[in-house]
Design brief:
40% of the residues lie in helices and 20% in strands. By secondary structure, it is α/β, with parallel strands linked by helices. The protein has two domains: 252 residues, Aldehyde Dehydrogenase, Chain A, domain 1 (3-Layer(aba) Sandwich); 180 residues, Aldehyde Dehydrogenase, Chain A, domain 2 (3-Layer(aba) Sandwich). Helix 6 links the parallel strand 6 and strand 7. The protein is globular. It binds NADP nicotinamide-adenine-dinucleotide phosphate and magnesium ion (MG). The site of NADP nicotinamide-adenine-dinucleotide phosphate has 30 residues, from helix 7 and helix 8.
Length: 451
């Protein structure tokens, strides 16, 4: 295969050239993981926890270098990358703690004693996208390793650099060889091979709904377990009784953060008609202050998109005159401005995941209308509700078909709380103790006490 040239999207310049893994290399990685599995699953829980804690400590020690590498490869602001590396370390701290807290039950039955065990699955394949490369990998690596599995991680070809650096740190931390393997190769080759491989017990996948559907189909052949974290088209619902200043100040970050390349992006802004004009003035003002530019410069809120290809796809969603269009730097870089467009929920910009800094602003009449519009989408990943009425907040929270929701906040992810989708945003939960269920199998053992 031709070598892989890795670009910096803010400069369009190459920053690394790598060899691509094909089928043979992927098979070698699976074989290494398979060979390392018996010894890894037999490591004493306290020792496995200790090793994961060392991984966390090394990520902390190298956080600045990892953050700079992520920023160079994804084009995201350095502040964002630093936050992500902090989360990566916290994820390993959390799952180090989880190792010894994940155990079975004794169940009262007639004629004996019944015990359950939480067994690892074996070799798991982890396939991740380019938008939060190491952070999303860590959400899978943490619970997978804590449960005693060995892994083959396939990063997106656009952004393989932090995964490779991480694999070095894992070795340095004392994780045995073969436990963490990274294959850098195209999804259509290395990814497909992981899905088909008979020795891979599970695929943990984050990416588009389209490829997720394909992963699920392929996994059926060997009855592989799958966890799918897919796309989103989340609503940010602004009620007339909200603190409009706070809601408007938070809205740009909720959709333009990571240049909109965020599965949790609140890319449909639903605004109650009675406050539409007032809110839009505040929103335009807040959006015009969102700083787009050099990701390495302190204070930058948004960098470029990931690639020229992706920019073309995003641009196709903006037709006619937007409500607001921000500024971008001159010169090289895959820049795209923060854009607010007036829409109905039927428009493509409101139905499809744009995955760029484009927000569809949609008016609604009352609470019932808001819930109807918010739920009228094939996706169900995240969302926000802004209101000062506590009963309404809880009523609407219960009515929305979404896996993750925040009230008077943009916050989507925390290390300790479950994250995942409803509907075509996928299934399975990452983070918190919930994720341990996705990387283990329950074994039930009955012991007769009959004489
Ligand atoms: P993607 O095209 O689905 O790719 C995701 C990963 O799958 C990449 O590593 C890709 O490899 C690989 N892949 C592609 N085709 C494959 C195939 N036929 N078999 C096996 N693997 C294959 O998604 P993306 O464009 O990178 O990322 C954007 C999408 O991810 C968005 O839809 C977004 O919503 C979603 N996302 C979801 C979450 C979540 O937690 N729910 C989080 C972040 C992103 P290559 O790219 O190397 O070919
Ligand atoms: Mg793709």
């Amino acid at each position: 295969m031709t070598p892989l040239e890795v670009l910096n999207p803010a400069t369009e310049k190459p920053i690394a050239t790598l060899e691509r893994a094909g089928i043979e290399e992927t098979d070698r990685a699976v074989a290494a993981a398979r060979a390392a599995y018996p010894a890894w699953r037999a490591v004493k829980p306290a020792d496995r926890a200790r090793l994961l804690r060392r991984v966390a400590a090394l990520v902390e020690e190298h956080a600045d270098g990892l953050a700079r590498l992520e920023t160079a490869n994804v084009g995201k602001p350095l502040g964002d990358s630093r936050w992500e590396m902090g989360m990566v370390a916290d994820v390993f701290h959390f799952y180090a703690g989880a190792v010894e807290k994940h155990y079975g039950d004794t169940i009262p039955v007639a004629g004996g004693v019944d015990l359950t065990f939480r067994e690892p699955l074996g070799v798991v394949g982890l396939i991740v996208p380019w938008n939060f490369p190491l952070m999303l990998a860590s959400w899978k690596l943490g619970p997978a390793l804590a449960c005693g599995n060995t892994v083959v991680l396939k990063p997106a070809e656009l952004t393989p650099l932090t995964a490779l650096r991480f694999s070095e740190l894992a070795l340095e931390a004392g994780i045995p060889e073969g436990v963490v393997n990274v294959v850098v190769g195209p999804g259509s080759v290395a990814g497909e091979r992981l899905i088909a491989h008979p020795d891979v017990a599970k695929i943990g996948f984050t990416g588009s709904t389209e490829v997720g559907r394909h992963v699920m189909e392929g996994a059926a052949k060997t009855i592989k377990r799958v966890t799918l974290e897919l796309g989103g088209k989340s609503a940010n619902v602004i009620f007339e009784d909200a603190d409009l200043e706070r809601a408007a100040a938070a809205a740009p970050g909720a959709v333009f953060g990571n240049a909109g390349q965020d599965c949790c992006a609140r890319s449909r802004i639903l605004v109650q008609k009675s406050v539409y004009d007032r809110f839009m003035k505040l929103l335009v003002d807040a959006t015009s202050k969102f700083r787009v530019g050099d990701p390495e410069q302190e204070g930058t809120d948004m960098g470029p998109l990931i690639s020229a290809d992706h920019r073309r796809k995003v641009a196709a969603f903006v037709n006619g005159t937007p409500l607001f269009k921000g500024k971008v730097p001159d010169g090289d870089g895959f820049w795209f401005p923060c854009t607010l467009v007036a829409a109905t929920n039927e428009d493509p910009v409101a139905r499809e995941e744009v995955f760029g800094p484009v927000a569809a602003v949609i008016p609604f009449t009352d609470e019932e209308d808001a819930v109807r519009i918010a739920n009228d989408t094939p996706y169900g990943l995240s969302g926000s509700i802004w209101t000062r009425n506590g009963a309404r907040a809880l009523r609407v929270a219960r009515a929305l078909e979404t896996g993750v929701l925040s009230i008077n906040s943009n916050s989507s992810v925390r290390v300790t709380t479950p994250f995942g989708g409803f509907k075509q945003s996928g299934f399975g939960r990452e983070l918190g103790m919930h994720a341990m269920a996705g990387y283990s199998e329950v074994k039930n053992v009955f012991i007769s006490t009959e004489a």
